[in-house]
Amino acid sequence: MTRKTQFVALLAGSAAPLSLFAMAVPAQAQDAATAAQPQQTEPAAAVPEETGEDIIVVGTAGGGTRRQDAAFALTTLNADAIAQAAPNSTADLLRTIPGVMAESSGGQNGANIFVRGYPSGGDAQFVTFQVEGVPIFPPPTLSFLENSQLVRLDETVERVEAVRGGTGSLFSNGQPGLTVNVVQRTGGSNFHGLGKISYTDYDEIRGDAWISGPLDEDTGFMVGGFYAQGNGIRDPQFRAEKGGQITGNIHHDFGNRGSVEVYARYLNDRGQWLLPIPIVQDQDGDIHAYPGFDAGTGALPGRETRVTTNLAGRTVDLADGRGAKVINTGVNFDYEIADGFRFRERASYLGGHADTVGLVPTEAPIAASDMAELLGGDGATLSSLSYVNGGGALAATTPVMRAGVWEVRKKISSFVADTGFEWSAGKNKLTGGFYYANYTSRDRWALGNQVLLTGEPNARLLNMTLTNAAGALQTATFNGFTSGQGFIVDGQYEGNDYAFYAVDEFQITPELRVDGGVRWQQHKVDGMIRTPAAATVNLDGDPNTLYDNAVSVFGAPRPIDYSDSAWSWTVGANYDITSQIGVFARYSRGNSFPQFDNLRDGLTITAKVDTYEGGIKVSMPWLNLYATVFHNKFDGLASTQLVDNVPLSQVGGAKATGVELEGALRPFRGFTLSGAATYLHGTYEDFFTGGGTIDNTGNRVQRQPRWAWRVTPAYEVDIGGFKPSIFATLQYTGDRFSDPENEQLLPHFYQLDAGVSVDVNDRIRLQVTGNNLTDEIGLTEGNPRVIGSQGEGPILARPILGRSFRFSAAVKF
């Protein structure tokens, strides 16, 4: 693709979507949208044609390969698609990838991402993000921190590459699940630039810009970024979404011998951590809005809860939300030392803060009289109920609920270096390398800190007194707080990974290529942590002040000293039946080492993943069709779930079999019908919750549907210099279970997005798009802090965002 083509394509940057399914490229690639927008997704315009000739890096040792030749399941999101779409978050982009279930209903940050039946309770345990081929932060997930939180996709991004399974277990940090690589724009021989502004019907404004050009004949630069602010669709009555990112790089070419690129990226962006809200589930499992609480726009936080001072005297501001303030710098060096022999070095450093602050609901609204009995024990009755900040007494029938003011502070750093050598001779290419990563996290947590609230949007703080069964008058709250801190953490962690890898690729015939490789990795973690002592304390010694009778305090410090190593390996083959039709097959063994949170809770198991996959690739001017069949087997899985402020272990195995389909049909000029579908049958095997007390064997893997699909028609015409486009996406997400016990049902739902864009001339594009046009109530999460069913009636769950519209204008120069 020429720079002019890339540049013109950027005008579509206001276009949108998670709807784009554009053309899958050979090896299961497909186009999608990537420019980040802080809230809703927007459907994309017409889909560009793929050739399969583009060079991709992810899933390779660094030299790259043609997509048509890749013997693994790959998705590429190129510059045309980036210009045509705008997902609501970095993680939301991944919803376009078959085999991946990405839940972005939690806001810009804090996504839950699941891959091909890999069992996980949340976050993104088996997903790694890279910038320029280097992991952003080597642990794919820590509690309250997953990789997508550390990067935003804006107009400075040239393309995104993603490999699932396949060779991912050999390269980078050895991720056997999904590895996503973000490739930045670089400068060329001419000056180019773009400016764009967008505005939503929920009063969010955002500006994007970038400029690139030459510094000399062989050296170019690029600099750009975005800034946005707003309250968000779920308006908490304060500025919840605010921040931006700036990226710059300098790229130098050594003629035909290689290149070097130095880059830096500063991110300072935060958004509201969106959590479950009250929803009504009837006896048939159907979902309805809770009275007075809009399922698509309602938010529990409000002016009264924004700033609170807990029982420990710590003031917490919910406007801090969830986000990151980090700097990421790096260098990529690639040079041919001698004919057929290349040296590569990729290194990066990341440092800063990634904090999470939120109002975490405990239970769905209940009558105040029932809450009095819940807080005071059997036989307790309500004595008084009033607003903390003024107002009359409230009735015993008033719906009330509790929510915790959770605060998690993380100071993180990482240094990663990947050194590789490549030797090519005839039909053979041998690559070897060394990977080193050092990463740290300084954690300070304070969970619990529950407050009593009205059961309504932008809830108000309440005070309550009650009379217990013995007739004693008891005070249940202090300025709204019903409890102090519950689960607390003070931890310092340091991890070091050392790995050697070697891969051999052999072109046996012009049609047949085989490859195989191995990786040995050692994983070391040292740390010192404090968690709650076995006994809680009564802060004031008065048993009738219920709010401070059981406050957690730190126990003695304890060290973490862990070390283990494992081998990973893979073998695959790609065969071109014709220049337009190919097939591939692969087996791989990958490993997932325990990270900081597992080791804190005493889980030292190294998960092993065996993957068998094969596929067919059809790439023609009028049709792209790609299909992959896979089977995964998991052993030694380990995770934790916080239930009643106590980590609950989940340990065991699973298996998953699935089919991934994607493609695009172009029957006539200007019209594209694209789509994708995933079938997944994933079940637990010898998988236990709660220290072996609950056997989930045979249950479906949580949060991942058996069926998911989407279809996107798009039509573009040229009318007298104007180029209008219309586009829409219908998406289906099947039934899932929120919990490993398969008792919290998340019903299937449909989502419809659509939009119109107009190229006024070669420089200006205007666009309006709508998301979730039918205002569907689609649940992506139940209450992850309970085990089992929540029953009928009011429950806690997290729906997708409600109907919204985005207007944008972009201009190039």
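(the above was protein one; protein two follows)
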Amino acid sequence: MSEQIDIRDFRATDPGASAPTPEQFRRALLRHLQYTVGKSPQKASLFDWRMALSHAVRDHAVDPWFAATQRTWDEDRKRVYYLSMEFLMGRLLEDQAINLGLREVAVQVLEEFGLSFAELAEGEPDAALGNGGLGRLAACYLDSMSTMGCPAYGYGLRYEHGLFRQSFENGRQIETPENWLATDNPWDFTRPEAAYPVGFGGEVTTHEGAALWSPGSQVLAAAHDTPVVGYGGHWANTLRLWAAMPSAELFDLQRFNAGDFAAASEAEALARSLSRVLYPNDTTDGGKELRLSQEYFLTSASVQDILRRYLAAHEDLRRLPEYVAIQMNDTHPAIAGPELIRLLVDEHGFEFDSAVSVATKVLGYTNHTLLPEALERWSVSLVRKVLPRHLQIVEALDTQFVQLQAGSPDPVRLISGDQVSMGDLAFATSHKVNGVSALHTELVSSQLFPVHNALHPGRIVNITNGITPRRWLKLANPALASLITDTIGPGWETDLQRLRELEPYAEDPAFRDAFGRSKRQAKERFTGWLAREHGIELPTEALFDAQVKRLHEYKRQLLNILWTIAQWQRIKRDPQAGWVPRVKIFGGKAAPSYHMAKLIIQLINDVAEVVNHDPETAHLLRVAYPANYGVSMAEKLIPAADLSEQISTAGMEASGTGNMKFALNGALTIGTLDGANVEIREQVGPENFFLFGLSTEQVAERRAQPDHARQALEASQSLRDVLQAIAEGTFSPDDPHRYDQLLDTLWNSDWFLVTSDFEDYDRAQGEVAQCYTDPVRWQQMAIRNVARMGYFSSDRSIREYMTHIWDIESAL
């Protein structure tokens, strides 16, 4: 029986219906406690209650989920398929309860049993399906697609251990497996009927002019579905995660019976490794092969699923672009183009050129970075080993691309030397390519893909990133969200431009006082959690200065900690100089193989150890680096922040979304003209933004000077004092030479221009301190930041995708 018939036979209740009464919800909760969890109220643990609560909430998600799918089939609507290696969803219980309008009734019913909704929600594990902004953006976009009634599937991998769990040992980052699936996931619907074979290796032969690929090994992609409900419960889409399962023939029963147990299970273990860890270390040949195999596993399973769903209702695959839009979230799913072409040619009889035309009209590519290492290049030998048929297709696409550049003495190629360029491949197989901020899109056009842009004018478009206000304001900052609703009324959650109505209240002393109370409540919530979970005590009256993001040299956490050392030295020289008390908060993980980033983490922790225990300065300067930063920590930290550090080297950050989350929650930004900082500054006003640093053009000019680092250091006595203290082992007395490599980089190369921007960063930090001493001015600036952030809603971003890339209309 097809999926279409199954869904049409189901009669769902009306989505968006009113919330259940307390009595109805109580019965549902107790029913799940008894029949789903198998416990009585008297014997139930907090875990049992959370599982029962999650299932009771999930029941209400299923109705709009089924109804939305049914309408999509009935009305034969186009669907969007969003392919991403990361989906950093965060905890779902509270998010789903808010979107379904169930939170208040759940709070009321739980209180009858002496239970706290917040405490139960806090016990839910974070799904370890992402690392940073890329995965969180995908999650925000799923929320907005559901809220706006855009029929969609998100496709990702169901990693058993995700990225890794971060801890610190003597300041060093330690990575251990994440165990988010150690207990049942109540949001998970397993779909054993939706399993697809995915092949690797083998050989390609030719029969009657047609290519025949015989894979050397094969695994199964098993589907696990999660409903993603939009705000108001009117529509729900699906997040489908693939888990790798061994084919039955992979288990060697004869070897097992002969006592060779490890060898018998070798192929099975290899299959499971495909969905075990996010971003395996690709500095080894084995790591590279696993990572490419993961990317193909995701795209092959997803494209097979897409074609199966299309063919359940249509016969002519030439009309695929009318009903299917596939969005590749960065270069990781770039093999989707060759895979779709392969299926159309090898299994559905298309001519090559016709298959390329259909695939290109279906596919879109979001570029998230200008960094060469993030654009992915795989050796021809590796692609031939893992995907021999796909290499043939890429070679044919490469030939076509070179022909388009007829007359060029040095044409750009998809295969350059011994490397397959996945960024160029993604561009060549997409009808639209978008950057994620105005500056980034300009650089994508002029620097990253200038030849492609000249050959395909209009293919590159800009869609600036956005964030969902449901999670990043209503859920994360309930005090501020309530103040906003009390002031301008409901409805801003789906029309964030209404926050403009707050702007006049910046002049209202009563509103400013209420705004200040909401910030204090957020600080108290964060510091209470930090003390309980991490044993870190922080003074809430201090300026909370936060930089939380993936550790990378271009994001310049190093600049931040060097300034912190300079500030500590100044305070020590003159403790009575009227310093503004400040807490420097860091958060984020470094890739396990990224030595310099891990060295910077250790420096931050070493500085914290010295500064936090200095009796002369501890009341004026503290450093906090809670381990294992993720969505749930961000939901507490971001609302508590006063200052948002967005200090990347200009021209290197594609967009950023943390900058948007901080500003939406009333933190002022200190930042460079990089990524979406440019547009945030335009929206909130230059007078409400602390700008510093070189521009993109100035960065290029400075880098062209071979001794720019030494020039900058010679011009900055304060920075030389900082580096001298590090060199003397002030922060590493057990190993004075620990940071020699870092110091050598700053003196002799400094590609990320930490030294060049240090003095201007110091000036801007002085402006921050001066402004913070004027509470009225600071509050006014913060309120204007909140009021002017409406443009950065992910709803706006998705509307632009729907119009400019996907050519799809809302079903609502």
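Reviewer note on protein two: The mean pLDDT is 94.
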